[in-house]
Amino acid sequence: MNVHHSINELRQLPGPVALAIGVFDGVHLGHQEVIRAAMSFSEKQGGTAVLMTFDPHPLRVLRPEAAPRLLCSTRHKLRILENLGVTNVLLAPFTHETAETSAQEFIGSLVSACQPLGFVSVGYTWSFGKNRQGNIHQLMELGEAHGFGVYGVPAVQLDGEVVSSTLIREAVRAGDFAKAKRLLGRDYTVLGEVVHGKHLGKELGFPTANIAVENEELPPNGVYAVSIPTSDFRLPVLNGVANLGLRPTVETGASDRALEVHLLDFDGDLYGSEMEITFVQRLREEKKFADIEELKKQIVQDIAAARKLFPR
Question: CATH number for the 188-307 domain, one of 3.10.20.520, 3.40.50.300, 2.40.30.30, 3.90.950.20?
Answer without folding.
Answer: 2.40.30.30
